[in-house]
Amino acid sequence: METDDNQGQTGGIAGAQPTPARRPRLPMVDTRRCTGCGRCVGACAPQLLSLDVQHWKKHAVLQGAERCTGCSLCALRCPFDAIRMVRPTG
């Protein structure tokens, strides 16, 4: 009679809990550096970035963060280094 040491397991180390899927990093806009040029808006394929006016100044704002793929094209296109990609907490 053969026995399977991993019977009932889904693979990996016996007794180890599965790791949750890593959340994509999201763009964080530094409004002090953002000039509102719109290059990041044009680079966002899912069209989640838009320009907003606050205190008489335009800057980029992320809308619908749950749909962001974390591709970081917006941060790469920003000539002012106003966008950095951060992993959400919580």
Walkthrough of the structure:
With 90 residues, the protein is of the alpha+beta class. The protein has 2 helices and 4 strands. It has helices at residues 39-43, 73-77, and strands at 26-29, 49-54, 57-62, 83-86. It has a two-stranded antiparallel sheet with strand order 1-4. Strand 2 and strand 3 (57-62) form a beta hairpin. The radius of gyration is 21 Å and the shape is globular. The N and C termini lie far apart (48 Å). Residues 2-12 have low confidence and may be disordered.
Roughly what fraction of the amino acids lie in strands?
15-25%
Residues in helices, as a percent range = 10-25%
Strand order of the largest sheet: 1-4
SSE string, helices as H and strands as E:
EHEEHE
Question: What brief labels describe this structure?
Answer:
single chain; 90 residues; alpha+beta; globular
What's the gist of this structure?
The chain has 90 residues and is of the alpha+beta class. It has two helices and four strands; from the N terminus they run E-H-E-E-H-E.
Secondary structure layout plus pairing:
Layout: E1 26-29, H1 39-43, E2 49-54, E3 57-62, H2 73-77, E4 83-86
Antiparallel strand pairs: 1-4, 2-3
